[in-house]
Amino acid sequence: MITLLYNMKLTKHIFLLLALVAVGNDLMAQEETVIDQVVAVVGKNIIKLSDIENTYGQMRRTQGYVNPKENRCNILESMLISKLLIHKGEIDSVEVSDEEVENQVQFYLKAYLRQYGSKEAMRQATGYTYDEFHDIYFDLLKNRILSQRVEYALTENVKITPAEVSEYFNEIPKDSLPQMPEEYEISEIVIKPSISEEERDRVRTQLAELRERIIKGEKFSMLATLYSEDPGSNKKGGELGFFTRGDMVSEFEAAAFALKPGEVSPIIETSFGFHIIQLIERRGNSINVRHLLLTPKVSSADLLAARVKLDSIVNQVRLGNITFEEAAKQYSDGDSKKQGGVVSNPQTGNNRFTKEEFQQLYPGISLVSMNAGDITNATPMKTSENKDAYRLVKLNKKIPAHQANLTDDYDKILNAALEEAKHKKVTEWCQRMIKNTYIRIADEYQDCNFELNWLKK
Length: 457
Known about the structure:
Blueprint: H1 8-19, H2 25-31, E1 38-42, E2 45-48, H3 49-63, H4 68-91, H5 98-116, H6 119-126, H7 130-155, H8 162-170, E3 179-180, E4 183-191, H9 197-215, H10 220-227, E5 239-243, H11 250-257, E6 268-270, E7 273-283, E8 286-294, H12 300-318, H13 324-331, E9 353-354, H14 355-361, E10 379-382, E11 388-399, E12 402-403, H15 410-435, E13 439-441
Antiparallel strand pairs: 1-2, 1-13, 3-12, 4-9, 4-11, 5-8, 6-7, 7-8, 10-11
């Protein structure tokens, strides 16, 4: 909602940076139907008609009807800005390492593999092989990182004062201020049931038997399909796809990168359970492995004990014997323990949740009828490792739906004002850079109502 406060030229530039790397099967199919041509040149960097048409097609799919001429012109200008930033990065020899690019490439490729299930299925659906996707993404992402690095250097020192935030807000017409949805600020206490040593030994023994079968010649992939408890990989024979250092939990990663092709790891333990790993292929700084995961099960008695413990904690809080914040620091097993249970919104980084955002993370819990200070009863949940646990949720503050204002929405307005100040800085830089840069734009785009003087009139 608050994006309505942004300059429209800025928002479409941000949208483009995301759209440039959305190379999905619809986009690929469209490339085959576009008779390509060079639409613009900035320095030695070109913009093709297919680049514009692919991004325009995505805008139509995500936003519905959009003005064809106006939005194609906006897309082109966003691309011109990006190419100008890339041109500057090339002039200044700004470094972007292949390893850094590869890390981002693997993020997107893994998403496609999860979507299609296998490399072959991805090829059949899109007409592009895994390696062709890799090369397309590598070039796109390297240029995006380069342009972002130059833009960051231009704007890193941009600061605004509270007075400037107020001035920015007061310049927005009152009838243009967005209606903000109801939001919540919350805290939580999470109790994860302990798992008995007997159960841990049972899983280790079972996994050791499976490992021995693999060592004696049975196929890892077959046993992973039959026995692995990782729902994301068991149907693919345990294969995870290529990843680089920093993508996996540290224990798993250390064991995986130490393997030779075909080698099977010892049993390792992570927060997800117990694993054995087999290295399939090493490609530069990336590896592809398959794994077999067995997860120790929480007994009903241990789960009941966790609930009883939470019931005791909430009773002590309600009696005033301990504050919720103190109880969270003392007893919680959740990530927000050190913050006294205060939960950060992973989408925004602040402490507020809309109703929809809250329900995504806390299914089955409603805050609508609660008042500030109210605490839920112990509620079952799944941890990030997909394990059973219980939690309490406290409603710290409820911000009713309202028209945007400086009191309730200062952080959002500050961010919007700061982004506009950065946009102004980049725009001023672009105007100066354009004067001394070779730029050519095709005749059919000469009548665009550009924000910047790309045509040097």
